[in-house]
């Protein structure tokens, strides 16, 4: 369910009483470089989180493997006791190595420990939503999610998890996983340049299930596009604001969680929710994805010779 407000409208997760503004906040960048260790400026990190919530953000994405532990500890320091209506979405399915490695696993022991770590470091008795992250860095590798879902379903029955989501999964993995327990949200790699999930988004929208793009601004490789720059100049916004506005207008079940570690950038991101793009500009922005596909083709062709 959606309706309009200054943060992109609201959305209610299916089968829940959790209603959030569609423009949220991703806390990953609150950690140090490579999402590892403490932030360069902890005071600023805390200020960013507090300003986000004061500005109306009530959907924050996090994980205890950000840091690890660091980001959740910052959220707790900045916001605990948490305001009514705030939804914290975390994820499990990975851990960090001593040299900042990302070690992916759906091992039962890791999943249970990860949920306990999130509960402790966030300072809560139950987690609003826990996303089970599938294997693969940016795109899913197709591995079964059933075993991991069974573990989270048990923890849900124990009252430690309220609702379950999925991250980095294919449509097929989603269909398989939801046979174990209801899924309220899917979080996948998607932005104006990477639109492989277009059909999947429409299917989820038809069922009222949230779709949350991770790396909506490109992630570790920020979006760069001449078309994006042209549209931004035409509407008097930044290219990144245009990229966010395009996603909000793509489908009513899309929830955004752009991340930042500065208040200046936070304000820019939130302002994108008020930007409305004309139909002609939306069509023009389709070229960003087409250009990205062409660039990948030329790169692959060159690499083959």
What features would you describe in this structure?
With 305 residues, this protein is an alpha/beta fold. The chain has one domain (2-303): NADP-dependent oxidoreductase domain (TIM Barrel), CATH 3.20.20.100. It is built from 10 helices and 12 strands. The strands form 3 sheets. Strands 4-5-6-9-10-11-12 form a 7-stranded parallel sheet. The chain has a 3-stranded antiparallel sheet with strand order 1-2-3, with no helix packed on it. Helix 4 links the parallel strand 9 and strand 10. The radius of gyration is 19 Å and the shape is globular. Residues 294-305 have low confidence and may be disordered. Residues 22-288 form the NADP-dependent oxidoreductase domain. GO terms for molecular function: oxidoreductase activity. Keywords: Oxidoreductase. This is Oxidoreductase. InterPro entries: AKR, Aldo-Keto_reductase, NAD(P)_OxRdtase_dom_sf, NADP_OxRdtase_dom.
Keywords:
single chain, NAD(P)_OxRdtase_dom_sf, seven-stranded parallel β-sheet, alpha/beta, three-stranded antiparallel β-sheet, TIM Barrel, 305 residues, NADP_OxRdtase_dom, oxidoreductase
Task: Give the SSE layout.
Blueprint: E1 2-3, E2 10-12, E3 19-21, E4 25-26, H1 42-54, E5 59-61, H2 70-79, E6 87-92, E7 94-96, E8 102-104, H3 108-122, E9 127-133, H4 146-157, E10 161-167, H5 171-177, E11 185-189, H6 198-206, E12 210-214, H7 226-235, H8 239-250, H9 263-271, H10 279-303
Parallel strand pairs: 4-5, 5-6, 6-9, 9-10, 10-11, 11-12
Antiparallel strand pairs: 1-2, 2-3, 7-8
């Amino acid at each position: 369910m959606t309706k309009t407000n200054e943060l992109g409208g609201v959305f209610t997760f299916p089968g829940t009483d959790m209603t959030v503004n569609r423009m949220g906040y991703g806390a990953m960048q609150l950690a140090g470089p490579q999402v590892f260790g403490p932030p360069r400026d902890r005071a600023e990190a805390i200020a960013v989180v507090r300003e986000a919530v004061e500005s109306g953000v009530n959907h924050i994405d996090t994980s205890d493997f950000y840091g690890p532990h660091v980001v959740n500890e910052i959220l707790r320091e900045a916001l605990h006791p948490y305001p009514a209506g705030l939804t914290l979405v975390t994820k499990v399915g990975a851990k960090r190595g001593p040299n900042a490695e990302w070690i992916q696993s759906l091992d039962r022991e890791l999943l249970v420990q990860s949920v306990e770590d999130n509960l402790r470091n966030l300072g809560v008795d139950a987690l609003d939503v826990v996303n089970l992250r599938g294997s693969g860095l940016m795109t899913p590798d197709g591995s079964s999610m059933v075993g991991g879902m069974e573990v989270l379903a048990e923890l849900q029955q124990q009252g430690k998890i309220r609702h379950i989501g999925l991250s980095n999964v294919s449509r097929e993995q989603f269909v398989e996983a939801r046979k174990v327990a209801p899924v309220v949200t899917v979080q996948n790699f998607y932005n104006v340049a990477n639109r492989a999930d277009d059909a999947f988004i429409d299917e989820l929208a038809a069922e009222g299930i949230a779709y949350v793009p991770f790396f909506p601004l490109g992630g570790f490789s920020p979006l760069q596009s001449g078309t994006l720059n042209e549209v931004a100049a035409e509407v008097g916004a930044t290219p990144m604001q245009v990229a966010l506005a395009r996603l909000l207008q793509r489908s009513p079940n899309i929830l955004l969680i752009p991340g930042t570690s500065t208040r200046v950038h936070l304000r820019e991101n939130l302002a994108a929710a008020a930007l409305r793009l004309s139909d002609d500009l939306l069509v023009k922005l389709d070229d960003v994805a087409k250009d990205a596909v062409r660039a990948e083709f030329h790169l692959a062709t060159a690499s083959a010779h």
